Amino acid sequence: MADDDSGTLSELLMHAARAQRRRWRELLEPWDLTPSQSRALRVIGDGDGTRVSDLAEALRIAPRSATEVADGLEARGLVERTPDPADRRAVLLRMTAAGRSIRDEVAVARAADARAFFGRLAAEDRVALARLLRELAG
Length: 138
Hints:
The protein has a two-stranded antiparallel sheet. It is built from six helices and two strands; from the N terminus they run H-H-H-H-E-E-H-H. By secondary structure, it is mostly helical.
């Protein structure tokens, strides 16, 4: 099969994505985080309080699953639930100091891993790959 065959391209893309996911899970092992928990820390840390429903939307998971992710992070002291000043019935997830520290450590490790993973490509190939992936994702 030629490399420009749609089936081959799809398989190559899936193989590359699986390799990246495997690297990502391995990278998170020292912090005992799942990929969903790591992504949740980034989402929660980006704002000044995040509702679970907003977390679910950002992670593209069911609200029940987002609650489980938040519960796991809260049990470890990485996030805390606080009352939402705009709605007394709702709560917001806020990052703790420990959560910020881990989020920042993971970000440094992830950036280094991405440099190593994509560093096998020439600079112009990385630019082309980013353009192509944006096109496919859009």
